[in-house]
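Appendix B: complex inputs.
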Amino acid sequence: AQSVTQLGSHVSVSEGALVLLRCNYSSSVPPYLFWYVQYPNQGLQLLLKYTSAATLVKGINGFEAEFKKSETSFHLTKPSAHMSDAAEYFCAVSESDDKIIFGKGTRLHILP
Amino acid sequence: GAVVSQHPSWVICKSGTSVKIECRSLDFQATTMFWYRQFPKQSLMLMATSNEGSKATYEQGVEKDKFLINHASLTLSTLTVTSAHPEDSSFYICSARDLGKSSYEQYFGPGTRLTVT
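Resulting structure:
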């Protein structure tokens, strides 16, 4: 069965610093992997997705993630954090049955 | 493109009443829609998969008689919470799969906040 583990329910970084949100997945077949962002009382916005093409995936708002099969990881990074990046981030995995399984989420705090 | 709307965005109802939430794909057709539930500060939990013209598939532990799902057209799915109780208070989010695109692509609605008093 597929699953997602996000390390760290809360991550704090200073404005301008590197953002690193960790995600490890478990899947019996090559997965599709996603990162979503959720602002308070809003739905989910897709940041980026991995679909077995390039292992380094670039998304919106300067975010990117690298698929590492050997480590079963799909960590999300951004070189320089902005205050507007403060939100909840969800890593998710999907196999062929179309279901998307979400991690528990990581709340990103940006320190001025 | 690929916009999903939900109505209402928030609703307050009394215990014992029923509430209907609509999920619409505005600019694409969706044979499959998904309903999620999110408790405060928690992740999204898939409740059911809604297929146009057929019965929904519910996840384990989700009461199908309590959460009625209807997917009558390629652009509309509804979730009805029957005989609502305070423990049903939650944030309900739907997503839709675009019939014309790859199977993995889902687009999420803005969510509906349900409060049962």
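Chain A has a mean pLDDT of 91.
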